Amino acid sequence: MSIFRIIWLGQLFYLIGISMTSFALNISVFRQTGSATQFALLMLTCTIPPIIISPVAGTLVDKWDRRMTMIIAHIIIGVLTLSLLIIATIGQIEIWQIYLINIFASIIGTFSNPAYKAAITSLVPPEDLSRASGMVQLSIGIQQIVGPLIAGAILDVIHLEGILTIDFLGLLIALTTLISVKFGEKIHQTEENNYQPSISFLWHVLWRDVTDGWTYLIKCPGLTSLVIILIVYQFSIGFVTVLFYPLALSLTTPSELGKIVFLSGISMILGSLLMSIWKYQWQNLITTILIAMSLSGMAIAIGGSRPSLLQMYIGTILFFFNTPFINGMIQILFQTRVAENLQGRVFALTGAISSAAIPLASIIAAPLSDYVFEPLMGFDGNWSKALIGQLIGTGPGRGTGLLFVIVGCFITTTAIIASQHPKIRQLELAE
């Protein structure tokens, strides 16, 4: 556990640096273009490449030394960060340069992230997996609140070049921790899974290994059912992700929105801390996941049900408090139910499948809100005088609020139905 803590601390500095750079680049792009479309494209450059590359990356991670995979990935990210810093120092960064570097960085991240998750199994004894998963979720929560908070406070003082310098220093700290310890050696492969670096491997063995993750899931119906539930959940969360800022800004100011985001990060940290110190009973994994999903759905519905800033605070805080339990317990479940030599490709495959649901939901959610629900719930909309209009209110943002209520109720209902599914229930009894 001590080696894991060292690696975790290094990754925390790395994540904070990335978060600061991401925030600064988002602001820079919006200031340069003033275009929401360009802003959305920036997000897609970070989300689409991992969806495509993750299954292949997971296969390779299972065959490579996981420590060396992380070291090489960090070195490449460092080169990209340094390149962006040089460009920013000698002149103004062009939008296409940010897009290109984002694409390369997100591809490299698809190798580093599964290697980190899979290495935890060899770093931490089984009885400490819940604590380790809680710490991972804690680092994500810290990243989400500390990175933007620091970057927002100092961006206009030290500019993008200063943010990139801090990011690079954080990466050096993470790289130093990885080099200073030993862990995550390549898992023993059977002769069937060994390969030679040839064209034949690239076109045949690699594809076969990519399908190994899917085949493993298919052979375990409970895991397959859980992945389906996860996809449905992530698709629903995609609606919330793309519409949260418009809904919040229909109720309050950007300054108040910043406070909501800050408190949501604090809430996520508290949830992560509770999970990391919890003396967990293994047979309750599924129950915990589904209860947390149900509460998340209720939180989304609360946030959208009335034009109330207080309810927005309550819903957001409750939602992010439950997030570590969903993500962390799912991670533990796969770590304890999937063979260690297959964990990299299974993590990558499930990550790619569930992540693909979010961009798809984003494409659907925005026009659905703008052209269907908002007109219906406007002051003169068809539903403004109906019971639903009297319950949740009418005017700007109320169509989006209604969509939040629908999505929240759908998530809660899905979790309740899943709790009665026998194949999912069997996962609680599996060793």
From TrEMBL:
Q: How does it sit in the membrane?
A: Multi-pass membrane protein
Transmembrane feature ranges: 12-30, 36-58, 70-90, 96-116, 136-157, 163-181, 226-248, 260-278, 285-304, 310-334, 346-368, 401-418
Q: Look up the domain of life of the source.
A: Bacteria
Q: Does the keyword Metal-binding apply?
A: no
One GO MF term, please? Answer: transmembrane transporter activity
Compartments where found: Cell membrane
How is this protein named in the record?
MFS transporter
Question: What is the species of this protein?
Answer: Cylindrospermopsis raciborskii CS-505
